[in-house]
Design brief:
Elements (H helix, E strand, L loop, with lengths): L1 E5 L3 H13 L3 E5 L2 H8 L6 E5 L7 H11 L4 E6 L4 H10 L3 E4 L4 H19 L3 E4 L2 E4 L4 E4 L2 E3 L3 H12 L5 E2 H8 L2 H5 L4 H15 L7 E4 L3 E4 L8
Parallel strand pairs: 1-2, 1-3, 3-4, 4-5
Antiparallel strand pairs: 6-7, 7-8, 8-9, 10-12, 11-12
Helix pairs in contact: 2-3, 6-9
Length: 231
């Protein structure tokens, strides 16, 4: 997942960013509500870990404004206010879950991933196929013609995104948003996408009968099944 951590405390934010990154997620951080809202409404995040007491725009106001424009992004609110009334207020504002401080990172991660699994089951297919290539998003496995393929984290994220948009052109910018942080994108490293696609092609195409990933000149890439042979 691509996650935005909106947390005012630098030490706590570093702790969350490090833990989520080590768990395989792409993570950005915002230190105040105004910046967090501006980043969140871009629509590039799967989930938002949101401190209730943010400077600028508080967490409740932020999620209410976000929900006017975006019902898709998962929101996990964290707060030192643990009363039943506070939890209800957070959930009614539009949060998907509410976690009281102090919390363990393992619980936060488990809650976040449970939210993602529920969304996947209700909104997205967990098994993605193009030709003889298969990706299981719940087990995070990839195989082709029954042969298991081991991918690095960003290779997996790029492949999953292309499979969810099979038959469509995906631009380098779209792929960059999927697998790299906001700061990295801003530096314009679009060539890094091509390098990862090259390695991905080697892993899922070398030794197999046909190519699946195609370069679309001047646009980006497309993953598709081979066209049937003309009689």
């Amino acid at each position: 997942m691509r996650v935005l951590v909106a947390e005012k405390d630098q030490r706590t934010a570093d702790y969350l960013v490090r833990g989520l990154t080590e768990s395989g997620h792409i993570v950005d951080r915002a230190a105040d509500g105004e910046v967090a809202l501006a980043m969140a409404i871009e629509g590039i995040y799967d989930a938002l870990v949101l401190d209730r007491k943010l400077p600028g725009i508080d967490g409740l106001s932020l999620v209410q404004r976000l929900r006017h424009r975006d019902e898709r992004t998962l929101v996990l609110m964290v707060s030192g206010t643990a009363t039943t009334a506070a939890r209800v207020e957070g959930l009614r504002a539009g949060c998907d879950d509410y976690l009281a401080k102090p919390y363990s990172f393992s619980e936060l991660l488990a809650r976040l991933e449970a939210l993602a699994r529920r969304r996947d089951r209700s909104r997205r297919k967990s098994i993605l196929r193009v030709g003889d290539l298969e990706l299981d998003s719940e087990l995070r496995t990839v195989s082709r013609a029954g042969r298991a393929i081991k991918l690095q984290r960003r290779e997996y994220l790029l492949l999953e995104y292309m499979l969810r948009h099979a038959g469509e052109v995906v631009t380098r910018s779209m792929l960059m948003e999927t697998a790299w942080t906001y700061d990295f994108e801003a530096k314009g490293h679009s060539h890094i996408v091509d390098m990862h696609i090259h390695r991905l092609r080697q892993k899922i195409e070398d030794g197999f009968d046909y190519r699946l990933i195609h370069t679309i000149a001047g646009a980006g890439y497309m993953i598709r099944e081979p066209a049937p042979a003309t009689p």
